[in-house]
Each structure stands twice: as C-alpha cells, then as structure tokens.
User: What shape does this take?
Amino acid sequence: MPNIGISIKNLYKVFGSNPNAAMELLRKGMGKGELLEKTGHVLAVNDICLEIEQNKIQVVMGLSGSGKSTLIRLINRLIEPSAGKILLDGEDVRSMSAVALRKTRRNKISMVFQSFALFPHRTVIENVGYGLKVQGDSRNNIKKYAKRWIDRVGLSGYENYYPTQLSGGMQQRVGLARALTTDADILLMDEAFSALDPLIKAVMQDILLDLQEEIKKTIVFITHDLDEALHLGDKIAILRDGMVVQNDNPQNILLNPASAYVADFMKDINRARILRVGSIMESLDSNLEGPTMPESTTLEEALQAFVNFPNDHAIIVNQDRQKIGMLTIGNLIRSMHRPDSKQIKASIKEEKLY
Assistant: This one.
C-alpha cells in the first residue's frame, strides 16, 4: 500500500450567499444545474475523494471551470470548504485553529502561483528566503538555503536582481526556489507554467522532474495542458463539473479511459510517445530468447529498436534486468493505433454527471 500524503474525503465547495442551505439541497438530491438555476449558488467542487500519494506528483487537470484551481486552494484553506475532510498526517485541515493553520502553511505546505506572486521591492535572494524569514530563521541560514535553491533552479548570479529585471521564465524559477527553500513536505502548484512560452515551459517541466528526483516532495500540480499532465504526473485526476471522473497513471488512462469524456480528452495524444512497453507487454514464454528492452521504453523508441532486431519480438525486463514479459512487433503497431470515436463509445458507457 502506498503512503498517502493528502487524503481528501467527500469534499464540496459551494459559492453563494448561503452555502449551508445549498448543501442541504444537494444532500436531498438536487443537481448542480438545478442548484444554480433555483438558488444562484455555484457548485465548484462536488464530492471529491482523492488519495494523493506521498512523494509523488499528482496532476489535477480539466477544462476551465472544472474546479481544479478551487480544489488546490481548498487544500490549504485559502478557500473555506463547504463540507468534507482534507487530511494531512491524519489531521483535518478544516478543523485547524487559525494558529495551527498558519503553522501548517509556514512549515508543511508551499505554493507556486501562475502569476509568480513575487515581491517587486525585494531582490531574488530576498524573495527566495522570505518563507524562512517568516519562520524566524537566522539571517545566515536564510542566505545559505536561499542561495542553494537559487543555484539549483539555474539562477546563480541573479541573487541581487529585482523581479522586474527578469524574464517570465526566470521569475517562475524564483517562485519555485522560494517554495523549495522552506523544505515543506507538500508543494502546491497552480497552473505554475501556463503563462510561459512553450520552450520555457518545457524547460521548467524538466527542471521540476529533475528536482523531484532529489527532493521527493508530495506535489499537487494543476494544469489544463494535457501534454504537461502526461509528462509530469505520476497520477492524473481528470475533473469535470467539479467531480473526479478518473484518477490513474497516464498509461492506464490512455489504455483504459473510464468514460467517453476521458477518451475524448485523450484522442489527439501521440500514444507512441507516452505509452511504455511495460503497459502493453504479453505473457512471457519461458523458452523464448531474444533481445531485451526495458519496461520504461516508449512505443516510439521500441519501434526504432525493432529495425535492428533479428526477429519480430523482444524480451521486456524490469529495473533489475529480470524478464517480465514479451513484446511482438504486431502488438506494438496495434497499440500505437488510436481507436476512433465509434469504438470508444461502443466500449464505454458514459456516466451521467450532475
């Protein structure tokens, strides 16, 4: 069983003048559309249950208005939940006193915003060390740890610059370094790279993945970019109308979408670049011999490798070089093929969402 970093149970958020009365109507079976029509209240997060694994990147994605940014702000109570629980180390964030919540925000949770949210009158090193300053750390420690993370995000030499002197990508690196400097267990990232140019965005994604190999934080990453979600996420929770319609690893979401809505989300993805051979391998014939291929190999890489193979199959091995399955060229080519919408609708019964 994986260790859980954040446990979200039956979480709701209703925006409006009387959310408690709206919650009573929801408990009696009123749907989101009817609630808006009759009361003017907006159901932004609808009975979300989500177990976020410790030291993993949990991506939350969906269309505009799906509730993803509201969800991340509920985790640290920047927005007050209407109902449900958010458990950090078994303690419900909703039940925390103002003092306890402030301590949690200072020491346990860091956040990176889409808008950078840097102090324009503070230098890079002052921005990065701000969290430690709030915690009351010594000046020497603040300088030491701020300098370390400035170097790690590739901004060495810019310590005394001001945010207005930096590009957007550099400012976002400052925001990331600031979040990491406090060494919080949980990192919340709300559309952190969406304001960046595509090339800079790709660089920031790779920086985050490289850092995660070292720091092993519990990261909740909000995005509307499917390519970004597939690149970063250990798991991806797809939201629709405030509800989680599927939460799984990228391989399973591509191969086994939970609904036609999810399948439609994935229809234009280049499967060859995302799917790994470990997800499509067949049972291994114990007598079979042949060239080996790591289970993490993408289908695109596998197809290129087959050009030089003497036969039409490969043996799949795990990280310990143990044989765990086989892959044929026929299965590889079939798996690269994207099913059409008629096949999707025929194989999946679409659930009704309220």
Observations:
- The chain has 17 helices and 13 strands.
- The two ends are 32 Å apart (CA to CA).
- The first strand starts at residue 4 and ends at 15.
